[in-house]
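Practice problem: predict the structure.
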Amino acid sequence: MTKPGDTIITESPVYFGILQLARSLGLYVMELPTNMTTGIELEAVKKTLSANKVKACVLMSNFSNPSGSMMPNEHKKEIVRLMDFYNVPLIEDDIHGDLYFGSSRPTNCKTYDESGIVLCCSSVSKTLAPGYRVGWVSPGKFKKEILRAKLYHTISSPTITHEVVGNFLKNGRYENHLRKIRQILNRNCNNYINTVLESFPAGTKVSQPQGGFFLWVELDKKIDTSAFYHLALKHNISIAPGRIFSFQDQFSNCMRLSFGLPWTNELRESIRTLGRLAKSI
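Answer:
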């Protein structure tokens, strides 16, 4: 679908793995403004598609990494309409969609795809077995291209891990597992948010994700989180500085925290330590 020199659009901030992959493929990335609650800005998408030759759009519609944003259903419908109108493939990463905190799973962009313009990707890497590396794609009208790419890169998938995951999905145990992990992550999220707001300097902003396991934290403009990262490491604490989620010079006072670890008093103290370090700058 793309070749070196082509342009793709993404939300911003965006998962650094997408940026690294795009660079390795020789693609030019246009990072579009993103609301930390509702996801990529539709007006920016419209203007970019109308003024540029875009070959693909890559985004996470549910609980984006790193912001935790979730696109409203109307936004998902509209972005699918736009991609269909301009004939731009939408590569949707829905890997966190099953990790919702509400009463029902959010829809994805693929739900509203009638023409096959959306390639929806997901995996059990964030919900069940990271080491198995088992995932899938609903390719829409790009099935031939996906099969060709898979043949070039991997030829075939390991059958044992696929069989294990398939059996787990088939017997209903996966849904029980998801219910438990969603409850744990929801509690973790609340604990993280409360501790950050209690411990960090006044004016610190924290995202309010409705699923997934990432928090986006915005600190005072004077704090460079790249330097803060090295300061935190001296205390055996790791953060993801905001700068790594963009090719542009932005988000330098932001950071991503993961609340995927089990909540403990030690973890609470680590967040409090981060807060004290932030106050000392």
